[in-house]
Amino acid sequence: MTEMERLNQEKLHEARSALKQKEEELKSVRDSLTDMERLYQNNLHWARSSLKQKEEELKSVKNRMTEMERLNQEKLHEARSALKQKDEELKLVRDRLRNEETMKSSCRRCEQHECEHKESMTEMETFYKEKLHEARSSLKQKEEELKSVKDRKRLRNEETMKPSCRRCEQHEREHKERMTEMETFYKEKLHEARSSLNQKEKELKSFKDRVAADLSLSIKTGDTESMNNPVSKTKLTEMYNKLKLLQWPKIKDHLKSNAVSREFTRDLTQKMFRDAAEEMERKKKQIDEVFGLIENSSGLTPQKVKEFRQLTIHSLQMNLYHSRKEDLLQSPFLQHGAQYHQNVMENFRLLASECYWLGCLMALNNPPLQPDWENHVPGLDAWDIFPRDIKSASAMKRRQ
Questions:
Q1: pLDDT of 253-292, one tens digit each?
Q2: Does residue 193 contact residue 79 with C-beta atoms inside 8 Å?
Q3: Is the full-model pTM beyond 0.85?
Q4: Are 72 and 128 in contact (CB under 8 A)?
Q5: What are the coiled-coil residue ranges (predicted)?
Q6: Residues 201 and 276 in one domain
Q7: Where is the domain boundary, 164, 197, 219?
């Protein structure tokens, strides 16, 4: 019995040792499983965070694409409005020239409209191409980022991340379909715009073939301003503003430093414009006598006679425009000029010649123009003798 007990004790000890060893192995396995589970949880959390970030980026891209689509729609609306306006302008020109048969020259304004229309359509085409290129680049970048994320997720846990990947792929397909639809839409709109431009070019070419010399005459004698006319109302206004804002301040400072009377200078300026208007009125009466308008004042004057009469006045206006300003001013232009020094007289002559020359050009405009002396209110500077605006001389007479 003693021997058996000893053997049993040894067996029991061996069993306990084996059990203890197995328990340690089991504990090691449990620790390993715990570490693996923690690592897996960390990886899963990182993957979910990355997926959420990419979904937010995709949402941001969608918002930007929506904004781009809205902006492109606005640009397209502006282009349609501009095209509609050009159609209306073309219709007005057609209506005006419907009964004129032999028109062949001076299509500058039509060519300018054509160039502006071409530039506008070119800018539109470039704008849409740039937007399409930006959208494609952005989509390509996001596709590469999504592909990279999907690859990393698939390497970490393919089974767990399959639903998320499917969702990303679905979003990607929807985004691609939306971009394809947008690209197709804007390509169609560009094609329509180009077709419309080609049609307008054909219409303008046909129109130019039917335009003749009467258009040039109507521009010079009617209310329409030619962009190349150096004595149009717009150009005369610019010359007046240049005299008032650039030339006059230099002359004014010199006159003030020599104690010249402001009232005398103001009266001289007004006299030059008034004398110029009276002289040009006399020349226009001489032109009327040549055309026989005074003798025929009781009857109706043919339209062509009026147009050629205005063309003659325009030629006189162009001749004065290219003349030396000092040669137009009659001497002596000042009474009692001996009381001033030579340098003051030079500034007076410069001011008087500028005012007289510009007054002649303004008086020959149709209708004649004059500085608005009646409504002029000087500012803080008492030497502010030039009115802010120029008005039609006929309107000023009606107020009187």
A1: 999 998 888 999 999 999 999 999 999 999 999 998 887 7
A2: yes
A3: no
A4: yes
A5: 5-159
A6: no
A7: 219
